[in-house]
């Protein structure tokens, strides 16, 4: 009698090996069985990312991508004594009482005076007023670096943690306990946190090569209509085996959430993160940034780019040679169309 479905066929029963099979092994095996790994991945990662065509991120102007509007929408940051809220040109200080000012008409010293009136530490307010006014006048410099150079580049200036905190989008907020339950021991160093997160991704998740290949076809064929259904992943589902195979968006969003789980003023250094989009083929990776001041007094935004997908793929299709062996995405393989959470788009 013919089985009603493949699941009913005894030939499809998995032998009892005496050990469990992880979700990562199952997903990776399913992807490899489709036969799509090498051709689809080379098509997407090499032809699409600027190695043979297009302008890569090392040649792009970050000033054009990230400078305006600066910290759009409503942004908040906790500071000693209270909280700062930036909405447009209005800065509200909430401490033992509240006070507000219109930034274009407020000097850094006036901001510090208002902070003292509501028992907030004046220095972060002084810095925020000076930095936001300067950046919104276009007086800002972007300093892109490789991932492993990020912390040293920030340390060469005078970090502005409160201003960096205002770069954080309110969309990327999760309970810190969920992040640490997945990543492990809390850390305030952003690059260490992201390395640890990548290790956990590699240990417990798999890139969804089947959906990935479908997206490549949609983007590459004439008249294709790019579609990429989002999974329902979260830090909670990653711990409970409820997540499907992941795509770049899943990895990037978890990375942004992890960075923002550390209060801005606790970061060593303070950092903010945002997805970096490449609309040519629907790819998303991550930008990591910190605001500093250097010798000339001009705000300098140190930026690096982070790619989690490579580490997830190493164990699945052996792409270490083609894609590199670290998280750095400030390279010729990546291009940025927009930084959507940075400017509120």
The rough form would be described as globular
Strand content: 15-25%
Sheet bearing the most strands, described?
Answer: 5 strands, mixed
Total of DSSP H or I helical runs spanning 4+ residues = 14
SSE-based structural type: alpha+beta
Uncertain segments are 1-50, 216-230, 315-324
Tally of discrete structural domains: 2
Mean pLDDT: 78
Order of helices and strands: HHHEEEEHHEHEHHHHHHEEEHH
CA radius of gyration is 23 Å
Cα-to-Cα separation, first versus last residue = 59 Å
Q: How many strands appear in the DSSP assignment?
A: 9
Query: Can you give the helix content as a percent range?
Result: 25-40%
Task: Walk me through what this model shows.
The protein has about 350 residues and is of the alpha+beta class. The chain is built from 14 helices and nine strands. The chain has two domains: about 25-65 and about 155-325, no CATH class; about 75-140. Mean pLDDT is about 80; it is low at about 1-50, about 215-230 and about 315-325. Strand 7 (about 270-280) and strand 8 (about 285-295) form a beta hairpin. Strands 5, 6, 7, 8 and 9 form a five-stranded mixed beta sheet that branches. The protein has a four-stranded antiparallel beta sheet with strand order 1-2-3-4.
List keywords for this structure.
345 residues; alpha+beta; single chain; 2 domains; globular; 9 strands; 16% strand; 5-stranded mixed sheet; 4-stranded antiparallel sheet
